[in-house]
Amino acid sequence: MSAEDHGALTEAVFYILLALHEPRHGYAIMQGVQELTKERVVLGPGTLYGALSTLVEKGWIKALQDDKNSRRREYVATDQGKAVFQAELERLEELLTHARLILGREES
Fold first, then answer.
1. 100 has pLDDT over 90
2. Minimal CA–CA distance to 14: which of 40, 45, 51?
3. Are 63 and 73 in contact, with CB atoms under 8 Å apart?
4. pTM for this predicted structure
């Protein structure tokens, strides 16, 4: 599946991929998304860890080597995950461009 064929991302997956442009563990992802969205998006543990498992299976993120002194597993977006994220960003930008074009016509 190419980056363009992934379909629309859920908001949770969008924010998880955004957060994982740098390595983070699950709790840091939850906190970062909640802070970034001013608490509009709150990822519960079930949602987050289910999504992380799915994203690993798709090859969009990978778990980093476990540190023997830490129970926290860090994840990071793969090149494929970053490409999927970029394709989604372009899709969303196109939606906004079209909406502004139509709304701009209506306001004239």
1. yes
2. 51
3. yes
4. 0.86
